[in-house]
Amino acid sequence: MYHVDPPPVAKKLRELFYCAHMLHSHIAHFYALAAPDFVVGPTADPAKRNILGLIDKVGLAVGGEVIKHRAYAQDIQAVIGGKATHPVCGLPGGMSKAITEEERQDFEEKAKSLVEFSKFGLKLFDDLVLANKEYLDLITGDIYTMKSYYMGMVDANNKVNFYEGDIRVVDSDGKETAKFKPDDYLEYIAEHTEPWSYLKFPFLKKVGWKGLVEGKDSGVYRVNSLARLNVADGMATPLAQAEHDRMYETLGGKPVHATLAFHWARLIEIVYAAERLLELCQDKEITDPNVRTIPTATPDEGIGVIEAPRGTLIHHYQTDENGIVTKVNLIVATAQNNPAMNMSVKKAAQGLIKKGQEATEGLLNMVEMAFRAYDPCMACATHTLPGQMPLEVVIYNSKGEVVQRLSRNVC
Amino acid sequence: MKTLVLGLGNPILSDDGVGIRVAEELEGKVDPQEVTVMETSMAGLDLLNILADYDRAIIIDAIQTVGGQAGDIYQLEPGALDSTQHAASPHDVNFATALELGRRLGLPLPQKIVIFAIEVADASTFSEKCTPEVRGAIPGCVEMIIQELDGGNAA
């Protein structure tokens, strides 16, 4: 929108920062929010099914490693961005400052450690989840499976890329049905609305909105980790590529429709983000002080797309003749997964709640697991900030009478 | 004794940023040799790294309670937050869980933590200013923290 291209080092610094951000987000989601479901148990007492219960099971050392490596990712973001949360480094035409050789060396050591930590995450997943047939059956079972389209960003070689590239869409057989530049997003994505929700329902425009239904005739698509791996031909770094191959061999090839495999894909993305972080830290150009091309034109219109931790994120801005923003369109990852999340929760609830069987807190969590796999950010998607996630399950009989009501954090 | 005063919140979300505003007011009113004053928008697990290596911490944050009056100030111990210990936020664990994790991991966390929480009126509108009731509570909260610091030092 400013008609200026940032210098190469600015793009590399942005990607480096972004890899650290991806690591920080994915590590928190897996270890604090997802792993307790598997390691402590999907129906375990909620008082134990958290990161404290996790370290009770796997040992204090794991907790220490999680805290340490999240802090590494946070430190890198803080140095580049001025502060880790709400960074102030991104400017039109580049970055606010360069990094020093001393900072680069520090980042490199942290990146090396993050690569080792990423391998450890997959080992933990192997030992505690995949080695347990009950969990593997849960991941591949029908109640957590949904056939949909997938969307994500790929580089020139069709490998997963978080920062820059084309948007690729595959159908439920894994066949490419679209590949487009970010600027063309409005030709491919439209948004449906429902009177019962103020969160929109994005869908693939060329397929059309057919309601909350699965399959190739329905424009429902998914984004986030598993979607990114499903649309790509592979990963751009060696360890991540090997882990990518292993996941698809285990789960029967591309595309994988198992919603709980979003967690596995997230762990593979942790490997990729760590490896790519290390590559960028070792790039000879990364300390180049030429981090900005000063824009001179009046901004008019711009579209930016990246892969946020939770999926494809689209920003579109238009300005008046003075460069003042007049129109903004944001399509955030969680909104794009909104149709699929509704369907996944319904399928899990229908598969788990049996006639005459009392619904328990454990069951509530197993329904919630279908939702948690998407790592949703409802605050981003709905612009409401309750600070906690209200959840309610209401079970009706065939006469429409309430049989049981389970709720948590509902005002 | 190494003391940290930490203001929490989101400075562009009206009253949610009140912890940060209090910390900003406090700077210049305390001896920087004895007391470190910081502001952050971080939460959950990330706070462990900030709190590490201090003997005492005073945390200032926004709070919403049932029936609370905007501008009310509560002085709390971390134990008061135990009832929310397992209600994790969508992307992170809450403060009580993070603190318990840090203690179990043997991190050098402050022996004493005091929380000053200010009842807010609006923590969801984008604004860099607090609402008048909450803004009016800032000087009183600053005074309470100074008293707490003096009391703590005397002890």
Care to describe what's here?
The complex is a heterodimer of chains A (411) and B (155). With 411 residues, chain A is α+β, with helices and mostly antiparallel strands. Helix content of chain A is 44%, strand content 18%. Chain A has a four-stranded mixed sheet with strand order 5-4-3-8, covered by helices on one side. In chain A, strands 9-10-11 form a three-stranded antiparallel sheet. In chain A, strands 1-2 form a two-stranded antiparallel sheet. The relative contact order of chain A is 0.15. Chain B has helices at 18-26, 46-51, 95-104, 132-154, and strands at residues 3-8, 35-40, 56-63, 73-76, 112-119. Chain B has a five-stranded mixed sheet with strand order 2-1-3-5-4. The longest helix of chain B has 23 residues, at 132-154. The interface between A and B is medium-sized, with 35 and 29 residues.
Question: Nutshell version of this structure?
Answer:
The complex is a heterodimer of chains A (411) and B (155). Chain A is of the alpha+beta class.
Query: How would a crystallographer describe the biggest sheet of chain A?
Result: 4 strands, mixed
Task: Tell me the fraction of residues in β-strands of chain A, as a range.
Answer: 15-25%
Largest pleated sheet of chain B: 5 strands, mixed
Per DSSP, what share of the residues of chain B sits in E-state strands of 2 or more residues?
15-25%
What percentage of residues of chain A falls in helices of 4 or more residues?
40-55%
Please state the average pLDDT score of chain A: 92
Describe the strand arrangement of the main beta sheet of chain B, using strand numbers: 2-1-3-5-4
How many extended strands of chain A?
13
Encode the helix/strand succession of chain B as letters: EHEHEEHEH
In total, the number of strands of chain B is: 5
Categorize the overall geometry of chain A.
globular
Structural class of chain B: alpha/beta
Oligomer: heterodimer
Outline the low-pLDDT stretches of chain A.
none
Q: Termini of chain B, distance in Å?
A: 11 Å
Counted by DSSP, the helix tally of chain B is 4
The arrangement of helices and strands of chain A along the chain is: HHHEEHHEEEHEEEHHHEEEHHHHEE
Largest interchain contact: A-B, 35 and 29 residues
Helical residues, percent of chain B: 25-40%
Low-confidence runs of chain B (pLDDT<50, min 5 residues)? Answer: none
